[in-house]
Description:
Shape: elongated
Radius of gyration: 25 Å
Strand content: 15-25%
Number of strands: 11
Strand order of the largest sheet: 8-7-6-9-10-11
Helix content: 25-40%
Order of helices and strands: HEEHEHEEHEEHEHHEHEHE
Number of helices: 9
Largest sheet: 6 strands, parallel
Amino acid sequence: MxxxxxxxxxxxxxxxxxxxxxxxxxxxxxxxxxxxxxLDKVSVPALLVLEIERVLRPGGIGAMLVGIxxxxxxxxxxxxxxxxxxxxxxxIVHVGHVNGFTLVVFEKRMxxxxxxxxFQLPADCQSHTNNKPFMEFLExxxxxxxxxxxxxxxxxxxxxxxxxxxxxxxxxxxxxEHLNSSAKSWFLPSYPVDRKxxxxxxxxxxxxxxxxYVKRPGITFVYHPDLAGSMAKANPDTYQDxxxxxxxxxFDFLLWFKETVHFADFVVLKMNAGEVELKFLTELFKSxxxxxxxxxxxxxxxxxxxxxxxxxxxxxxFKSLRSSGVFVHQWWED
Length: 334
């Protein structure tokens, strides 16, 4: 193969793409870069182009060898046009002539997806597949807490028979922040399934949660020291660690979560949108564990002090989650 393959003129075309052609006889997927040997050999070329574009992350590079053409500018443009017309979320960044073929390189635009949409979830993501028919019935997102908001929520069990499931799991992350709130019950008001049907887990750094909420069989307290970071950053002058001598600093919460939800039949997750929690939510997407979460209740009322990877407002986060297929609700607490 000619050496000029490995010297792309455009700095936006990584060498990894060019090296990929030397090893590929079909579609090569590696990290952010995808390439295809020859578009003309595929019976449904549009589907191939769209599939390559789908698996790319924002900013990722896709490349294809198309047909047989000369090296003249007009010929290159004609050869690249079929690929360009099919692309939906990418732009052409390079067109070249290589050994009688036209090389078309495209880049997936960063602005085409929201934060959580950048993560590629498994094709058999069960919660997304099950909830897809009901996403259109979710209650509208609002900027301010409405009166009687809990009665306006479109709970998922209104559409599926969750009560018939064998193992129901409810996980409340960061419940300690609301011990002094006016909420009369730790569970979800008006929820269509009796709370006694759930295996309940309260996750917090504050051991007072255990005394306040763990009052019957089936309710478990899980100590998570990292959650102290969110409260300490939010209230640095007034915060006092309620368990300064707590152990288990090496607790792997993500591993615990995976093991807990993996064998569950229906999972409800309720959490705050603090820095630590949103980092955990990102890890759920990266690992694909979000596919085991059927319904999410997220409390997000103040993003002024949050500096997480999503970098968005509360409304941005909710829109991104819903666009990613998560059956998520705004949750309001005093």
